[in-house]
UniProtKB/TrEMBL annotation:
Recorded GO CC terms: extracellular region
Family membership: Belongs to the YkuD family.
GO terms assigned for molecular function: glycosyltransferase activity; peptidoglycan L,D-transpeptidase activity
Highest taxon of the lineage: Bacteria
Gene Ontology biological process terms, A to Z: cell wall organization; peptidoglycan-protein cross-linking; regulation of cell shape
Residue ranges constituting the L,D-TPase catalytic domain according to the UniProt record: 69-205
SUPFAM superfamilies in UniProt: L,D-transpeptidase catalytic domain-like
Species for this entry: Phyllobacterium zundukense
Pathway given in the UniProt record: Cell wall biogenesis; peptidoglycan biosynthesis
Protein name: L,D-TPase catalytic domain-containing protein
CDD domains for this protein: YkuD_like (cd16913)
InterPro entries registered for this protein in UniProt: LD-transpeptidase (IPR050979), LD_TPept_cat_dom (IPR005490), Transpep_catalytic_dom (IPR038063)
Entry annotation: catalytic residues: 165, 181
Keyword Hydrolase: yes
Amino acid sequence: MQLKTIVLAVGLMGATVLSGCSTIGFSFSTASYNSVVDAGYVIPAIPRTKIPPQFLRQEVRYEGGEAPGTIIVDTGAKYLYYVLGGGKAMRYGIGVGKQGFEWHGSARVALKREWPTWTPPKEMIQRRPELAEFRDGMDPGLQNPLGARALYLFNKGGDTGYRLHGTPEWWSIGKAMSSGCIRLMNQDIIDLYNRAEVGAKVVVR
């Protein structure tokens, strides 16, 4: 039994090293995913037991070298790190772009919105004509694909079209299902929104 425990621990440490971000050590999540009343909306509770524990919000040791306030997105491991400094980061589980919709690069947080309106791009409407009714925007709400918060990513060319945003589909965290945006559970995007500043650097790997 002790040998199995050692092997498991070594395997987990190896997975962290291979994730592409310089993290070491583990912490257990104490984050709350209870129901939240926010701006008049009642965000449903998320069943923690149905979320793989590595995707729960937690503070971890981090040695990436980036400045505090930087956001690092590891699309392979399905993690987003908010660098705290002092060798630590807050880590969130994320959902990423499905095959053919992945992207990598650097950007900055240009805008932050609470309960944003969602407007599907014309390319998405071409793929899914049923979304045409929202060409002028979907009102904020619990079923809005952007969830409770959105951080809008711009680069030197302007709006990238990509967002860090919430989602009502908590079961999609840890999977590649989006059209390129990075999605977090609503309780997590609220936490990230409260930490991240406009102008924050975002690196997507």
